[in-house]
Amino acid sequence: MVPGRIPRSKEALLFGDNIDLVKPGDEVELVGIYIARYECALNVKQGFPVFNTLIEANSIRPYQELRNVDEIDQK
Fold it and tell me: What are the residue boundaries of the structural domains of the chain, listed by start?
């Protein structure tokens, strides 16, 4: 992680071969479908539209693996 960057997170659903490729807390490159689901219970409580968002992953790779490939390509 680059110093001074604020960590961000988003829930992702992993299926099939994507399971166990990364662990919680890893920086990753993720390709998938961004899903926003309407949450009725939260809307009643908050009084305005609230959506639960997540990503259904199609492909995921650790960021460290991507940096290593870039270093090899530059040599």
Answer: 12-74
**Structure tokens belonging to residue 19:** 């399971």
Tokens of 2: 């680059």
Burial class (CB in 10 A: 0-12, 13-18, 19+), 57: buried
Q: What is the pTM of this model?
A: 0.63
pLDDT of residue 64: 78
Closest CA to 56 of 8, 7, 18: 18
Tell me which H or E stretch contains 68: helix 63-74
pLDDT digits over 35-64, tens only? 998 877 777 777 777 788 899 999 998 887
